[in-house]
Amino acid sequence: MGEMQADAERKRVLIAEDEALIRLDLAEMLVEEGYDVVGEAGDGETAVKLAEELKPDLVILDIKMPIMDGLAAAERIAGARIAPVIILTAFSQRDLVERARAAGAMTYLVKPFQKSDLVPAVEIALSRYSEIAALESEVAGLTDRLEIRKTVERAKGALMTTYGMTEPQAFKWIQRTAMDHRMTMKEVAERILAETAGGEVEQPAS
């Protein structure tokens, strides 16, 4: 039963990288860390098709690929809300990072990278994506969504500063408090900001 549960929680990853050797290294690192590599592509167009078919939990895209580059592919995948995207970029392409974020990428990795760089990037991408999905489920309007995200970001920062929480811990605390008290995450975030500004903050339950 325990093994079945572990398998059920394995995150499914799609890799798109036109250099076969880097693609192989990346797949090996991911498998060693307990992720399932469910698809591989050598160009952006194939990556988009595979993402639509396989519905992975995460997509890793090289920024420079034939037929369709990683930025265009990221825009399509993120725009369709299929999965969070990590962009791979060479050091000389750092100027493209902002364009990658605008295309919907959750984070990026600079090549050459090691396993110690890869795992945190994967965790950040998955965490941020789940945060955005949770916030978007609260409201329909784009303006409201952006406003709530800003408020929650500030509240997370207050919890991280005051209690030394990590970013995912702070978000989970806001989410759990909202559920426990039947409040929206925006209401919880606003209360945190009011209390931290007044210096009277209720110690978060562990």
Would you kindly provide a written description of the structure presented here, covering whatever features stand out?
The protein has helices at about 1-10, 20-30, 45-55, 70-80, 95-100, 115-135, 140-165, 165-180, 185-200, and strands at about 10-15, 35-40, 60, 85-90, 105-110. The protein is elongated. Helix content is about 60%, strand content about 15%. It contains 9 helices and 5 strands, in the order αβαβαβαβαβαααα. Mean pLDDT is about 80; it is low at about 1-10. The relative contact order is 0.09. The protein is an alpha/beta fold.
Primary descriptors:
206 residues; alpha/beta; five-stranded parallel β-sheet; 9 helices; 5 strands; disordered N terminus
Order of helix and strand elements from N to C terminus: HEHEHEHEHEHHHH
Taking all residues together, what is the mean pLDDT?
Answer: 81
Strand composition percent = 5-15%
Q: Residue share in helices?
A: 55-70%
Helix/strand structural class: alpha/beta
